[in-house]
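Request:
You are asked to prepare a plain-text protein record giving the amino acid sequence and the backbone structure tokens, at your earliest convenience.
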Amino acid sequence: MSGIVGSYFNTRGSGVVAKLGTDGQVFTSSGAGVSQDFEAAAGGGKINQVVQTLKQDVFTNTTEDAWVDITDMSCAITPSASDSKIIIQLSLYGGVNTPVTPSVQILRDIDGGGYSNLATSSGTAASNRKAATCGTFNSGDGNQCQSLSSTTIDEPSTTDEVTYKLQLWQDNTSTTNIGASGGDSDAAHQNRYPNTITLLEVLA
């Protein structure tokens, strides 16, 4: 090998290495017969930050045919770039004491501008069918606790604070619990469960 690594030019065979790059660049080939060079490393896909809300108490709902905020189930993140994507991961546990059909939706607020249904997380409304993110807990066995999870990718296109919250809807006035079984009886076979919203910022 002729030339000295670190010199302004370094010759090896017929190629010429351009001057050394700067911090964060990588040594690349520009193609056959073309001088090698230093270029910026490929970006994108990096997890820049992770935030989470953990709810450990029980939320109980008996409201019929209305979207109700699930208390303390919101989470905020401030993207570092306007082209970042936000991955929203939900992990909920709950149950009902009689047959009920609960649904969950995600709402988004940007810098206090007001909440709106996050369209990318919702199904398609049709006739009497509501648009929801996910739903379960319909066994009607008050001793059972079932899991509910969802992963959604949002593109808020902002560097302002973005807050996501959860709402619950059910079709009758029976009890729906988030964080416990429907009956939530004080017994050794009954448990309490954590519920989380996790937000991950993915750089473009």
Confidence is low (pLDDT under 50) at residues 7-13. The CA atoms of residues 92 and 195 lie 5 Å apart.
